[in-house]
Amino acid sequence: MARARGLDGIAVTNHDFYRPETCVSDACVPGIEISTTEGHLLVIGPNPPARTEAGMLTPHEAVSLAHERDCVAIVAHPFRNSILRESDADFDGIEINGKHPEHRHQIEAIADKRNLSLVGGSDAHFPFEVGRLSTRIQSDRFTPSAVVDAIRDGRVEPVVRDTPLLSGLRTVYTQIHRWKGQLQ
After folding, report:
1. What end-to-end distance do the CA atoms of the chain give, in Å?
2. Rounded Cα–Cα distance for residues 80 and 63 (Å)
3. 96 with 118: CB under 8 angstroms?
4. Per the count of CB atoms within 10 A, which of 31, 57, 86, 162 is most buried?
5. Which domains does the chain have, with CATH numbers?
6. What band does 123 get if pLDDT is binned at 50, 70 and 90?
7. How many angstroms separate the CA atoms of 103 and 17, rounded?
8. Is 52 left (phi over 0), alpha (psi -120 to 50) or beta?
9. How far from chain centre, in Å, is Cα 137?
10. pLDDT tens across 141-156, in order?
11. Residues 20-50: pLDDT tens digits?
12. Distance between CA atoms of 89 and 102, rounded to whole angstroms?
């Protein structure tokens, strides 16, 4: 699906664990989605932690862990079940999430105010969701370290793909997350 949508690579981030066998090609950037005490943090780069305990790390601890392991720390879906965006931790970026791109202008304002790189993430749980939002990276090479450098340097931009199917899915996800009380 990533190739069909014209993507050169993907980052795989499961909740609170990373398995190296998840990245089966050079077109994969390792990562983990850490459930901090204040929300979800994407940790992407060459050496993410293998496992974290959900809700045990503060934002500052999670960011420090990411940086110690040569990874970037990105605020994930900042308006869904999260107050992480309010933390003063030293984040590298903030995500416009594929399930809720309607928050784009608010997220852009946060990125601008805090001088954070703005990335796009599809938050895909099924193949057809891959690439609904992605990140264009300005780099001559595609390696985990090059991706980290591009995000830290601000050489990235989110790419939104809008089709009737993806638009309909967003509506469904928004209703589900509102029903669960996860949208702010």
Report:
1. 31
2. 19
3. yes
4. 31
5. 10-179 (3.20.20.140)
6. confident
7. 27
8. beta
9. 14
10. 999 999 999 999 999 9
11. 998 888 899 999 999 999 999 999 999 999 9
12. 25
